[in-house]
Design goal:
The protein is an alpha/beta fold. Helix content is 40%, strand content 25%. It starts with a helix and ends with a strand. Bound molecules: S-adenosyl-L-homocysteine and N,N-dimethyl-L-histidine.
Length: 326
């Protein structure tokens, strides 16, 4: 019933089993934590869209500005490309303009890759408006999705991978470096990556971006518990948890947590979990690492890329890097 109201198609059994296993592991770990990819059911994807409209959350607008400004130079430096695969496309609103700038006489195939069915549906509608672009979505995790797009390319086709919006920041730094190496392994020499990274800025701006006064980010965070209740039969009391965003200056990352307001026992039958929370204990739900510009060249090199160009937004420091797979 709730599923129907949210317009969510029944998750496939394998995905639900993976969700249950991750919830089990995350709630029984000494330091309770969950992977951020589970934010994005239909409601979570809609809440993320709302976050992008918040005056305090400058990430999407910065990314959009840089892309618009850089598109002609980017197209010239990149050279001909007929296949674009986007990791974590979301609704694809920013990508539309970029694809218009890249589409040549031969047309373009666009493969959005996302775990959110709802986001992919929106993305398909959004990109269908760009003439010359064929859309074929891939509902999958980032790397298996990219491997599929790369494997299914036509002979001789050159691939541009997009990883925008600062989503790399949702990996811890060492994991991000490993992830980029695996991303490179899914590509062929001469393929390219356009990578958006959010940069370090004043702590006050960052904390407000992740703890907005309207409470949209709090709703996005709490929806993770609501999703566990809906899909795995959990009995989380959402009112018993408070949204928290902290800036860790030495790790250069925002952390999002849900803090238990009182001691409680939570049951999630489909994950086989009974988890006790102490008063003040937190469930760590997201990391959002922010980069210094001078970290980026080494990140490119160690992953097997050569930096071709970088554009930075001045209003909300955010970098867009074009890397070539060597
Ligand atoms: N790139 C868009 C959306 C960013 S939100 C933008 O810049 O605005 C992050 C997107 O990545 C969401 O749509 C989410 O569903 C997707 N996502 C998160 N983790 C994922 C994973 N492990 N594999 C595939 N998609 C993922
Ligand atoms: C998708 N990702 C880059 C966003 C971020 O900024 O880390 C997700 C988000 N979390 C809270 N607000 C936005």
């Amino acid at each position: 019933m709730i599923r129907a109201q949210l317009g969510v198609p029944a998750s496939c059994p394998a995905r639900l089993a993976e969700f249950a296993a991750d919830v089990h592991d995350g709630l029984t770990a000494p330091r309770k934590a969950l992977p951020p990819k589970y934010f994005y059911d239909a409601l979570g994807s809609a809440l993320f869209e709302a976050i992008c409209l918040l005056p305090e959350y400058g990430v999407l607008r910065a990314d959009d500005r840089v892309l618009r400004r850089a598109a002609p130079e980017l197209a010239a430096r990149l050279g001909p490309v007929t296949l674009v695969a986007e990791l974590g496309s979301g609704s694809g609103t920013k990508t539309r303009g970029l694809l218009s700038a890249l589409v040549g006489r031969a047309g373009l195939s666009y493969r959005p890759i996302d775990v959110s069915h709802a986001a992919l549906q929106r993305c398909r509608r959004e990109i269908a408006r760009v003439s010359g672009v064929r859309v074929a979505e891939i509902e999958a995790d980032f790397l298996p999705g990219l491997a599929t797009a790369s494997r299914e390319r036509a002979p001789g086709e050159r691939l541009l991978a997009l990883f925008l919006g600062g989503t790399l920041g949702n990996f811890e730094r060492p994991a991000a470096a490993g992830f980029l190496r695996q991303l490179r392994d899914a590509l062929l020499p001469g393929d390219a990556l356009l990578l958006g990274t959010d940069l370090v800025k004043e702590a006050e701006r960052l904390v407000l971006a992740y703890d907005d006064p309207t409470g949209v980010t709090a709703a996005f965070n709490l929806n993770l518990l609501a999703r566990i209740n809906r899909e795995l039969g959990g009995d989380f009391d959402l009112a018993a948890f408070a949204h928290e965003a902290r800036w860790d200056v030495s790790a250069r990352r925002i952390e999002m947590h849900l803090r238990a307001r009182e001691p409680q026992l939570v049951r999630v039958p489909a994950a086989g979990v009974r988890a006790a929370f102490e008063r003040g204990e937190t469930l760590w739900t997201e990391t959002s690492c922010k980069y210094e510009e001078d970290e980026l060249p080494a990140l490119a090199r160690t992953a097997g890329f050569r930096n071709v160009a970088r554009w930075v937004d001045a209003e909300w420091p955010f970098a867009e890097s074009l890397w070539l797979a060597e």
